[in-house]
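Support request, please re-run this one:
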Amino acid sequence: MWTAVAKYLLRTKVHQDSLHTLLQAQKSKSIHQKHFSLSRRPWQHSAGTAQAAQTFNASAPIQKVEALDKNQFVCVHWEDGSKSLYPSVWLRDNCQCPDCFLHSAKARKLLLENLDVNIEAKDVTLTEQKKVYIIWPDNHTSEFEAEWLKKRCFSEQARAKIQEELFLSGHSTEQG
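Re-run finished. Output below.
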């Protein structure tokens, strides 16, 4: 459920941002045409999106992890200087262990009725700079790969990167 909510919110935010960027591109089309050769992707000249997308590094190792706000959140500090904040309930819901996740179907086994929305991480540790290891109050354990977490980061840079990948990279506006 949390993934569906997060996807919906991300799609809504990304859609709003892409519309805003495209509208800005349309408004400043004449300015861009004076300063740039005609591009098949006029929105690429948006400095904010381009700069944010360049600073997002999906393969950065983890520097440290910590539980915040009475263990309701897990903060991952990346080697590239960025930080990612993950709600504990989202991490518990997205546990990738064989008891919680059916890898062959890429589906959760954990029933929503069994998910404690007020769950707190009992212990959070970093292993080998590439995995976040969490012990939950019921002593269930979850282990998250750095790359998996980085791809699901909620930061502005990550959203800009996803926005670019989902909405901008595959489009071409042929101009005759």
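Residues 2-27 form the longest helix (26 residues). Residues 56 and 157 are 6 Å apart (CA to CA).
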